[in-house]
Structure formats: structure tokens, C-alpha cells
TrEMBL record:
PANTHER family: F-BOX PROTEIN-LIKE (PTHR31639), F-BOX_FBD_LRR PROTEIN (PTHR31639:SF93). InterPro entries: F-box-like_dom_sf (IPR036047), F-box_AtFBL13-like (IPR053781), F-box_dom (IPR001810), FBD (IPR006566), LRR_dom_sf (IPR032675), LRR_FXL15/At3g58940/PEG3-like (IPR055411). It comes from Punica granatum (Pomegranate). Pfam families: F-box, LRR_At5g56370. It comes from the Eukaryota. This is F-box domain-containing protein. Residues 105-153 form the F-box domain. The lineage of its organism: Eukaryota, Viridiplantae, Streptophyta, Embryophyta, Tracheophyta.
Amino acid sequence: MEVTVYCSVSGPSAADKLLAELEAGAVPKSFCSSRDRSQNGMVMHAVELMRESRKDRIVVRQLKSVRLVEGVGNLGVTDSCRLIDFLLCKGNKRARMTSQTEDKADRLSELPEHLIDHILSLLPIKDAVKTSMLSRKWRYRWTTLPELVFDDLCAPTSSDAQSSNSVLGKIINDVLLIHTGPVRKFVISHKKFHADAEIGRWLYYLSRVSLKVLVLNFSVGHCCKTLSSLFSCQHLVNLKLSRCSVNLPSTFGGFKHLKRMELSLCSLSQDGLERLIMSCPLLEKMILKSVDWHISRLHITAPKLRCLILIGTFNLKDVRFGANRLTEVGVCFPKDINESGRGYVNQSYSNLVDFFDQLPLIAVLQVRNLLKCWSCGDMPEKLPSPCLYLRTLRVYVDFGSEKEISIVLCLLRSCPELRGLQLKACPSSGQRNADAGYGFWERHRSPHPLLQLRAVAIFGISGSRLELGLIRFVLGNSPLLKKMFIVGPVPSTSQLLKDLLQIERASPHAQVVDLDAKDIIPDKFFRTFLSLHED
């Protein structure tokens, strides 16, 4: 019989020493701790084999690099030698004994099943499949994974589109063929993947395994046609489609459990979109990004809808928020919207009062390039009905436009519970008036306490009269203000910052903090900002 010892040695002399000790039938001190020999069962077992039969032969094989796997045990390594494993190449009985010893030493395999499942869920699907080689307990364990994600890590994006499409398609087919058990989440997100011929079969399979989350994000420049089998996934809770053509079948009865839906660059009819929304009675959050440009009207009927985000939907000329329980709304128009705004929208957006009348419970509002539209209509000093629940306001504003600054002031006066305010400069669409700001703040000098405002962040200011006047208005009317962040390319030693520090403040605790935009991590900054105005 042959016993193979894999080890790392510093040179031939160390290997010869190890071989001599093993052939002598002794437990090498280099590998065995005198305090606890039980940790070195594999070494002692090899020596016992030598005592049973002198015909056994030991082969020492050198490893160029050694990586100890946690759970093997401390072998008390000295003399630049490290024992990794024993492999019995012949003898079924002895092979089983060694295998049992290895299994006992493999602490990773002794983990509870739910922890193993959690570890597998953190790995890319390609690496999860490879864990079958770790041990018998891990073999094909990945086939019960409840979440299957096929992204750029599964197939190379550097190759041509046809090759990537073929490779990833084969991977998905193979995984679904072997997979057993329910699938809670299924994701396809690859830069060069499209599979019109395959998607119907995959969706039909997923409709029978209680799928909860479905994400389909196909290659740029390709619009995948989703087949009717998509609408058979009746257990969906979260649906995200990107670059898909959606055609609702006449027999579609709705997604009765769907709570979150995101459609990005999708092609579908106006009636189809309204019908889809109406057929989801539990829908709570909806995101529409650059929907089909043919859709110009959208009447939302969703009684439980709480969050609505519209991005790049400038073609929507008439939007009615039939869901009056909305608490979070975001409307982001493209940067190239014209000065008048009327070429893109009508009364649905340009009437500031009507817009807020549809949102009586609004708590979080983000608008980008929408102030250009609001400036086309009437601009009251204060809304007729105050926004009693609005706590966070994020606005993109042209700091060179008196009209847009007036709208910001109108919102500040109309939101008595406002606690967090973010203002971000957007580029002016026309020639900036050098005289802008003269006499403006004399007309808006009357104080108006912002009793609940705690945190303010202003991005991209240049130091114009309108900007400084707005900052002075906020600092002078916010008795509970904690911090005002000034974010932009202006250095801290500039005259602008000196002027800001001299502005009188209503709050004795208010701090003006100057930050460089390059040093800001958006997510971290936003969490810090939110923590400032939360109770």
C-alpha cells in the first residue's frame, strides 16, 4: 500500500528528515503536539499503518504553496514543515477509515445546515457549484439554493455577444435541470445576454416553484420579448424588468401578491401599463424609468401604493396620482428639458397647487428639473393647503433663476414639519442674468420660522446673490438647525465661506460645514444626513 503525505518543506534536507521519521514508525515531533495528540489523528493513523505492514511505502510530495483550511486543527508545525493531508490510494477499508477521520476534522462541514445555506447564498452561482468538491456533505448542496443569480460573473463579458449568450444560456439550462426545491429569487443581469427563445421555458419552470422575486435585465440595445409564461408567476412579490417588451394577455388576472415593481426602458402600451398597475392590489412601490415614449398619459389606480418614482418620463404629459396614500414621490426629468417646460408637460406638472393637492400624505419628495415646469404656472407665496407630513425635501434648482428660488421659498413656507432639506444646483438652460438677485431678497425679507428644520445640504453653489440670500434666509429662520453642509468645489479658505460663517443664525447650535464633493460617499453622506433630522 502507498501512503502519500502532502507537505510544504523548506528544502531536501527537511523532506529527508520527515521521510526518515515516518519510515522509522515514529510520530514525528515536527507534526505532533505533545499536549494534545488527538488533534493529530491523521499522523498517528499513518504510523499505525506502517507498523502493521513494513511493505507499505510512504511518498513525500512537496507543495509549492500551502493554504491551511480552517477546521483541520493545529498540528504544531516546526522545522518549516506543514502537514496538510493524507491520501490513501489503495485499500478500501483503510480509505474509509481515513475518510471518516477527515470528515471529523472538517469543521466547515459540521456547520448547521442553515449556515451552510447562508454561505452558499453569498457566493456567485459559479463558485457555489464548485463547493461540491469540498466534501460529501457539500456535494450538490447548491442544488437547493433558493436564490439563483446569473450575472456578469457567470459568463465573460469580454467575448462577443453571441458567445456570451451561448455560454450563459447553457449555464442557466444546466442549473435549472439539476436544481431541486423552491426558487424564491431568480435574476438574469448580463451586459451581453438576450434569450428570446429560452426565456419562455425558464419562466414556465419558475412559475411552478413559488417564485417570489424576478429580475430580468437584458443586454443594451436588445429588447427581450417576455412571453405569457411571465404572467403565470402568481406568487411574485418583487418584479424588476429592464429592456423588455411586455404584452399583457387578455386572460391576465393580475399579480395578487406583488408589492414592488420596477420597469426600466420597457416597451408596453398605455392601456397595458395602467391595467398592469390596476391588477396589483397590494402594490406598495413602483419605479418607472424611461418607459415607452408612446405613453403620454398615466392614471394610477393603486390603493396601497406608498412610493412612486418617475425617472426620465418627460413624455408623460398627464399624470394623475389616483393613489392618495403616497408618502414618497420622486420625479426626475432629463437635463435637456427646455426653459419653458411646456413642450414636455401640461397642467399635470406645471400647476404647483394641483400637484400637491394630489399628495396629501407626502413625507419624502425628490424633484429634478421639475421646477422649470412649476415656474410656468402660478407661483403662490404659500400653498393653500400646507404639506403637514413632508419631512424630507430634495430639490434640483437653478440658483440663477429667481422663479425657481421663489418656488423653493414657497415650499419652505408650506411645510411646517420639514426636517431635512437638500438643494442641488442644476445647470442653467439659458444665459444667466448678471443682475439676478438685485432687489429679490428685499421683496422676500419677511421672516418665516422653519420650526422643525434640523439639517440642510446645498450642493454646487457658486456664491451668487440669490444663493447667499437663500442661505441667509434658512440660517436666520431655523431655530433647531444642527448642521448646514456646503458641498462644492469652493475651497474652505475662500471668501464665500468666510461670508457664510458671519451670517447670523437663529440656532445657537447650527454649524456650517464645508465639504469637497470629491470626498463625499453618497450613501454614507445620506445616512449621516438622515440621522441628523430624525428624532
